[in-house]
Each structure stands twice: as structure tokens, then as C-alpha cells.
Design goal:
By secondary structure, the protein is an alpha/beta fold. The protein is about 40% helix and about 15% strand. It has 17 helices and 18 strands. Helix 3 packs parallel to helix 4.
Length: about 500
């Protein structure tokens, strides 16, 4: 699913109006019917519904929804806030239709004294502002948002919570944004929904298809998209009947240290569970017995050092993919191992955990990373690597710059993990859950991506498919164990491709 910045959404509406063709007010009516249909699935007519509308097209949507609900026998109360004294043409048309219908209580809010009492059992439909907002709310609008939020009643926002910007909210006034329980986004999610700092405003979101012109959606360029099942699983390569272990690649994993061999075990198990033909693990001497017992399918390459890897003697040319980092430690010897690997490897690498921390401490090594390698940082690892950031949106833009500079893929782990290509494309993942916020989950992802690279998937395919399957395995595991009880090993047990 393509995602668009708010600057492009208006153009998509305009194209639909011109080429469907359909009038703008009829397109608004179509959106209002989708919203009303959603409300009618859940709304109890015995509960008070208060509809708050602004002067723009988002307000027009809200007024149209109120009129449709009134036809269905409900009695919403409608409150229009129009401090500028001028409505958008479509909002004005829907105001006139609502007044002509004469079935709902309709109040124009002139001052804070006109704000209605809101009971905690009420439902509220927020149609004050849409996704085109580009400055923080103030004055009577901010006061109304505060009034809505303080009521602690159920809030459903149309398209986007009023006051929230469509992408970056780092400079926004967070006290002047509606805190919605549900957000009904029109046609596609807004990228602000995918940013952790906005969770308190967006609540649960759902996309309502309002039939924007498919040609406009297809032909409008965007760097952003939402990775869903159909696209992710289209990358899966079928396994041939006469294939053998050599068909599916030989992966090398470098990692583990005294006290952190569990990370290497998890990465190794995930790699094998993700279809690799052969796996060799270069680990310290202390980890050999652990790995041979916990992961008998893997071959061990013991380092001469007991506690951490210290010397890379492997012939890298015999491996189809190499991963490094999980449980590695940041000892000086490990820097030498990483530098040796970066200098000698001709294949893309998966770089995770302590290998990323070593890059952060030795930034001159960044230029040695083989092109199209995959870096998989969690938020703190990325901050060490690229510097501080004030919002997820800023983090993504920094990652795009870094990916372009070094020609690598960057996987920004977290809810809606963002996979960023060297060309600047950003794909947000649709799978995963908060139960995966547990130690070892990232090690599992590293092993999965390594296995895919070893099997001949491109770096782009390996990153996208690996992240999607990792999240989906976590979702299956959460259904079995609950989010609170989920551990990384549970994710490995649920890895499946189809």
C-alpha cells in the first residue's frame, strides 16, 4: 500500500474529482457514508453522540455523517466551530443540507461558554481539522481540544486526530491535539500513525476506502509504503523437489561471548528455521559446547580466545552470506574482527547489535561496509550510530541519508519497523506486536535475514521478507502465549513462509 505525505493527498483528491469524474461534495458524501457505516456497526443509539465540526472539509465530513445518522434514526448533537466566519464550499453545502433536514440539534460555537457538557459515557466524533493542518492549534480551537480530552469520553476522529500533523510533530503543541480512541483514516493511513510518539493521539486506526482514482494512486510517486502480506509473500521462492542443502546457501554467523552465548543461539536457530542449507558459527571457545548442544544443526568454528572472538581466519569466499554482532561484545579484538570482515567480504552482510556499536565507536569503518549490506539497529543503536533525534520522523530522515551515503539497507526496529533502501524508499512493516519487546527478539531477526540472504534473496527482498515474517511469527506466538508471556524462542517456533 502506498503512503503519501499530506502535501500529495490534496492532489489525489483533485485527480479523482476531475477524472472519475465526481463533484467534490459527492466525494465528501462517499467518505461520510463510509464513516457512518463504521459508526453504525458499533454505535448504540441510546448513547449520546456529540459531533464537533470545523470550518474546512473535515468539518464537512462530520456534518454529512451527522445527517446520515439522523436518517437512520439517531439523534446526534452537532457543534460547529467557525471562528474565522467562513466555511469551505463543501462544508457550507453540508451545513445547509443539515439545517434543511432539521433532525439534529445544531449549535454554532462562538466562545468557550458555548462548549457543551460532555459526559464520560458520551461518544464524540472529531471533525475539527484534517490532515492538511500545518500549524499548532491555539485560541478557541486549542481550548475545545482540551475540553474534549478532559472529558475522558470515547473519541472517534475523522481521517486524523485534530491538531496532529500528517508526518512530523516534533515542533507541534502536543497539548492541542485530540486524543482519539479510534481514527478512521480515509483511503490510506497517515504516516503520523506509524510514529511511536503519536500513539496517545491516534488510538486504534482503521482505513476506510473512499474510492480515490486507482490511476492517481498508481501513478503518483512516493518514497513511502506500507508492507502487507500480499507484497511480502510475493518474494517467497518455491523450493524445488530435487534441491539439496547446497541449494539453499551456506551462511556464516560471527558472534557470541562469555555470558552472551544465548544471543548467538537465538540467531543461529532462527537462521536454520528460516531455510538456510548450511550454517557455520564462529564463536569463542566458551560457546562451543553451548552451541553444539543447543543448536546441533549448526557447525562450530571455535575462536582461539575463550571469552570472545578475536581472529577471523575463515575463508569468506565459501559463504553465500555473513552476519555479525549478536552477543559479540565490544572488546578491542572484536574491532579487528569486524574490520577484517568489512575489508574482505564481497557479499552483503547483516550487521546487528555489538557490531553496530563497534561501528559507532569506529566510524571510519562505515566506508568499508560492502554495498547493499543490511544494518538492523534498535533505537539506541541507531542514535549511537547517527546522532540524537527528536522524533521518529526525524530518525527516518536521518536513516535515509545514512542509507544513501553508504549504499546500505537500514532496518529501524520497533513497532511498524521501517526498512530503508539506499535509494531512500521507506517501507513500514504491518506485522508484529508489543510482546516482541523482549530480549533476543532482534537476534532472531538477524538470523532470519541472514538465512534469506544466504538462499539467494536480494538484500531488498531479504530485509522486507525477513521483517514481515519475523513480525508475523511474533503475532502467532502472541496468540498462543499472550504478549506478556512472549519470549524470543517463541518467535522462532512460529517462523513459517506460507
Amino acid at each position: 500500500m502506498k503512503l503519501f505525505t499530506t502535501s500529495k493527498i490534496k492532489a489525489l483528491d483533485a485527480y479523482t474529482i476531475e477524472h472519475e469524474p465526481i463533484s467534490s461534495v459527492d466525494l465528501m458524501e462517499r467518505a461520510a457514508n463510509r464513516i457512518a457505516d463504521w459508526l453504525l456497526r458499533f454505535f448504540d443509539g441510546h448513547v449520546s453522540l456529540k459531533v464537533f465540526a470545523g470550518a474546512g472539509n473535515n468539518g464537512g465530513d462530520a456534518l454529512a455523517v451527522a445527517r446520515i445518522l439522523a436518517v437512520c434514526g439517531f439523534e446526534p448533537e452537532v457543534y460547529l466551530l467557525n471562528s474565522v466566519g467562513k466555511l469551505s464550499p463543501d462544508c457550507a453545502e453540508n451545513k445547509a443540507r443539515l439545517e434543511k433536514q432539521g433532525k439534529v440539534k445544531f449549535v454554532e460555537l462562538k466562545s468557550e461558554a458555548d462548549f457543551p457538557f460532555i459526559d464520560s459515557d458520551d461518544w464524540m466524533l472529531d471533525g475539527l481539522f484534517g490532515s492538511g493542518l500545518n500549524r499548532s492549534l491555539d485560541g478557541i480551537y486549542a481550548a475545545l481540544v482540551k475540553h474534549i480530552n478532559e472529558a475522558r469520553a470515547k473519541v472517534i476522529s475523522i481521517d486524523i486526530p485534530s491538531g496532529l500533523f500528517g508526518e512530523d510533530n516534533s515542533q507541534n503543541d502536543l497539548n492541542a491535539i485530540v486524543q482519539a480512541d479510534y481514527t478512521l483514516s480515509l483511503q490510506f493511513p497517515k504516516m503520523a500513525f506509524l510514529m511511536p510518539e503519536n500513539e496517545q493521539f491516534v488510538g486504534q486506526w482503521e482505513v476506510l476506502d473512499i474510492g480515490l482514482h486507482p490511476e492517481a494512486l498508481r501513478n503518483t510517486a512516493t518514497e513511502y509504503s506500507f508492507l502487507e502480506e500480499d507484497e511480502a509473500l510475493s518474494f517467497v521462492k518455491p523450493r524445488g523437489r530435487f534441491s539439496h542443502k547446497g541449494t539453499y546457501g551456506h551462511a556464516l554467523f560471527i558472534g557470541g561471548s562469555y555470558g552472551k552465548m544465548g544471543a548467538a543461539v537465538l540467531a543461529s536457530k532462527a537462521c536454520l528455521r528460516s531455510g538456510v542449507g548450511l550454517l557455520s558459527v564462529h564463536c569463542p571457545e566458551c560457546g562451543v559446547a553451548i552451541l553444539q548442544t543447543a543448536v546441533p544443526e549448526a557447525m562450530c568454528l571455535p575462536d582461539k580466545d575463550f571469552a570472545h572472538v578475536s581472529l577471523l581466519t575463515d575463508d569468506l569466499s565459501k559463504y553465500s552470506a555473513v552476519g555479525i554482532g549478536c552477543g559479540l561484545s565490544t572488546e578491542p579484538d572484536c574491532v579487528k574482527v569486524l574490520e577484517h570482515l568489512l575489508q574482505d567480504a564481497t557479499q552483503p552482510l547483516v550487521i546487528d547489535a555489538d557490531a553496530l556499536n563497534l561501528l559507532s565507536e569506529n566510524k571510519e569503518l562505515l566506508s568499508l561496509i560492502p554495498t547493499y549490506s543490511i544494518l538492523t539497529p534498535h533505537p539506541k543503536e541507531f542514535e549511537r550510530l547517527a546522532g540524537a533525534y527528536s522524533s521518529r520522523w526525524e530518525q527516518i530522515q536521518m536513516a535515509r541519508k545514512l542509507a544513501s551515503e553508504y549504499k546500505v539497507f537500514i532496518v529501524l526496529k520497533g513497532a511498524y519497523t521501517a526498512i530503508i533502501s539506499p535509494e531512500g524508499a521507506v517501507r513500514f512493516n504491518s506485522t508484529g506486536n508489543s510482546g516482541m519487546a523482549t530480549g533476543g527478539s532482534g537476534d532472531v531477526l538477524c538470523g532470519m535475514i541472514l538465512a534469506l540472504l544466504a538462499q539467494g534473496y536480494s538484500a531488498d527482498e531479504a530485509a522486507l521478507l525477513g521483517v514481515f515474517l519475523h513480525g508475523r511469527a511474533g503475532d502467532i506466538a502472541a496468540e498462543k502465549h499472550g504478549k506478556e508471556g512472549l519470549i524470543a524462542s517463541d518467535i522462532i517456533s512460529e517462523i513459517r513462509f506460507l
